[in-house]
Here is the input.
Amino acid sequence: MRKKIKNSFYLLFLVAILILPYFVFAQSAALNKLEKVQSSSGYKTATEYTAAEMAGDIVKVLFSLLGIIFTVLILYGGYNWMVAAGDNSKVDKAKSTIQRAIIGLIITAGAYAIGQLVVGVIMMSRQN
Here is the structure.
């Protein structure tokens, strides 16, 4: 009996997970009003969002993540340097971590600058 109740509960849970999301896609008057406000304010709707813009946004997110990784590596290297307690091998390892993080940041910033330059040139040529 207990197994039947347990199986019934799992079945009910599965049905709820599979069926309830369909009600989320219902159209409402409030959604229509929001879309009108969105289009009149200059924001792009989902249909106006091109693949190139999506790729650009993905690249921006990746560069942001690289910036976060850089910050974490600098903090990690600084922490290791502080707790090295005069041990030269640990200090050298911490310095190496910081130097590599800075080199990575320079490479990342250079890649971003080159990418922006290329995109700018392409956009200028499309306008002419």
Q: What stands out?
A: Helices lie at 2-19, 29-41, 51-82, 88-127. The chain is about 80% helix and 0% strand. The chain has a mean pLDDT of 83.
